[in-house]
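Thread: aspartic acid complex, take 2
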Amino acid sequence: MSSSQSTAVTKPRLIILTTGGTIASVNGQPMIDGPALVQAVPDIAEHATITVETFSKIGSSQMTPAHWLRLAQRINQLLQDDPGLSGVVITHGTDTMEETAYFLNLAIRSKKPIVLVGSMRSANEISADGPANLLNAVRVAVDENSIGKGVLVVLNEEISAAREVWKTHNRRVETFQSAAGFLGVVDPDQIRYYRNPIHPHTYQVPFELDKVTALPKVELVMDFTGFDPAILTYFAGKGLDGLVIGSFAGGRISSGMLEGMKRAAEKGIPLVIASQVPEGRIIGYPSYPFPVVFAPDLSPKKARILLLLALMKTQDTKELQTFFERY
Ligand code: ASP
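Output below.
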């Protein structure tokens, strides 16, 4: 090829779905819509050709399982309709980002990078972190080493796996941490990975949501000293499909919770115990006088997400336990 002929390098193509959150907010002003959010970071265009879609404009504390379902179905449809897409970036509030990330980690049927990004400071604050986080999320989404790693969370130049990441601080930009550590980092010159997730995710999971119109109803109740069993009597009467209990360390529960769970078990409600303690595994499941599933090392919020998906496969306690050992 003559030197005068230049090969036009086609940039990877991404979809950016915006949902709201602090990354899209200017203190006291309504949420910035998708196109404006992306236009505020012109460097993105050096890395990818972007299509923007405003999915919602809500604080992530307003997210619901219905939003998760619609978001997963939209992403699966986009990836199926356009095989040339390199990946998807989702801008999202940080309050429930870890939950949406884990739901998508179990619902997206693709190896392509799905990257959630948010910010701890709004756009008008000094040293707002949103623009850099969004640019870094795009860089991660187009990096070939991000393929097959499941759903990722990118903030503060750190790349986290959806299954273990959680929000640890009300204010600091380094709020997202994982007991298992980061998957990698975003350096100025390259995306650097140090490990892969080992729990099955995305293309490796059996949950088919395309035709689902509503998810099972699963609630979460935290145990505490002096727990009143009447709280679970209330829930047991609400037609739940499943109930997750945030236990003390080791899967231990109060006597009030024990009584409450007995009543829920009598109604045939599948019960899952996950520890409120953020790190470590429940070792040696305690025995209780009713069928109960244990989440060895999932947070109560993520145990709820796995349960509402697993219930679409089985209500059997023993079979549910295999899901919690695997995902
Ligand atoms: N402060 C949250 C955020 O960082 C608000 C939200 O989650 O929507 O995005």
